[in-house]
Design a protein that fits this description.
The protein contains twelve helices and 13 strands. By secondary structure, it is of the alpha/beta class. It has one domain: Phosphatidylinositol (PI) phosphodiesterase (TIM Barrel, Alpha-Beta Barrel). Helix 2 packs parallel to helix 5.
Length: 322
């Protein structure tokens, strides 16, 4: 006959195992990776460490790495001669001195009754763009910084952080005879980065506001790299249970504006239930709303709402751990 204490110990152990099976998944909910693209709460440097250095310059990318970024984000544009460069805008005038160097090379567009002049990236060759100063607008100490090519960005970041490129305005470039998706995958292939896990120190995730661009990458060009759909409003219906199921057909994750998640927190669970990761944008020290600082704001989204990753201008403020 078994000893009463032995039976008690066995029953207690069985109860503990059952309890752990029931409880641990809930305790671990906010920490487990939803997809292979993230293994922990992940920091993406928005345009580099753009709170401290001019966005999309090598200085901003290098500082982001020094501040612990898991990924660095290059927005991509295309030059007249078909080279991918890192720049947020389709045009050059906001972050360079193009008006001074090429005063007559603009396109004039009428908006309402007002004529607006724009200097489009795709109207300039790489050689011309490399003459521009992309740093002085931010601060005198960055005078002379150049608009980097995507290749220069890869060379600088590779082995130190992941790369999170965005296809920017792909339809605009398509109307001008360029194929942004083909150019991007060709550049990644040239660098041996076109397959998941090809360089464990340099994972690649591709993002876009254009679902058509992501569909093309996945369904036509057959990329196996993770794709993330950027969402700026609820206009297209992505942020519903049914919408998220549709996004899952071509994307590994969604990246909504943070205001959308704050207004409707269940989106995070709906996305996770659909097998999608959630990456929010953009967190910056200059705009924290009801939070005392950007660190507190990021902490809330990561550990209260349960998002998986975020874009920030201030990588040094990212809260590692609860």
């Amino acid at each position: 006959m078994p000893h009463p204490q032995s039976r008690f110990a066995r029953d207690a152990w069985s109860a503990l195992v059952i309890l752990s099976l029931l409880v641990l998944p809930f305790l671990d909910f906010f920490h487990r990776p939803v997809s292979a693209q993230y293994s922990r709460k992940t920091l993406i440097a928005h345009r580099g460490a753009s709170g401290y250095a001019p966005e999309h310059t090598l200085a901003a990318y290098r500082l982001a790495i020094a501040q612990g970024a898991d990924f660095v984000e290059p927005d991509l544009q295309i030059t007249k001669d078909g080279v991918l460069v890192c720049l947020h805008d389709l045009t050059l005038e906001r972050t360079t001195n193009v008006r001074q160097l090429f005063p007559d090379r603009y396109r004039e567009e009428v908006r309402g009754d007002i004529g607006v002049r724009h200097w489009y990236v795709s109207d300039f060759t790489l050689k011309e763009i490399q003459q521009l100063d992309a740093g002085s607008w931010f601060g005198e100490k960055f005078k002379g910084a150049q608009v980097p090519t995507f290749q220069e960005m890869i060379d600088d970041v590779r082995g130190k952080a992941g790369i999170y490129p965005e296809t920017k305005g792909p339809e605009v470039y398509g109307s001008r005879g360029f194929d942004m998706e083909q150019l991007l995958l060709a550049e990644l292939k040239k660098n041996g980065l076109d397959q998941p896990g090809a360089d464990p120190k340099t994972p690649v995730i591709i993002q876009s506001f254009s679902d058509e661009s992501l569909r093309k990458l996945k369904q036509e060009l057959k990329t196996k790299l993770p794709l993330v759909l950027l969402i700026e409003s609820e206009a297209k219906g992505w942020l519903s249970v049914e919408g998220l199921k549709k996004a899952k057909e071509f994307a590994a994750g969604i990246s909504p504006a943070k205001k959308l998640l704050e207004a409707n927190p269940p989106i995070v669970k709906w996305a996770h239930d659909a097998g999608l990761s959630v990456t929010a944008y953009t967190f910056r020290a200059s705009a924290t709303g009801r939070f005392k600082d950007v660190r507190e704001e990021m902490h809330y989204f990561l550990y209260t709402l349960g998002i998986d990753a975020l874009f920030t201008d201030n990588p040094d403020q990212f809260p590692r751990g609860k």
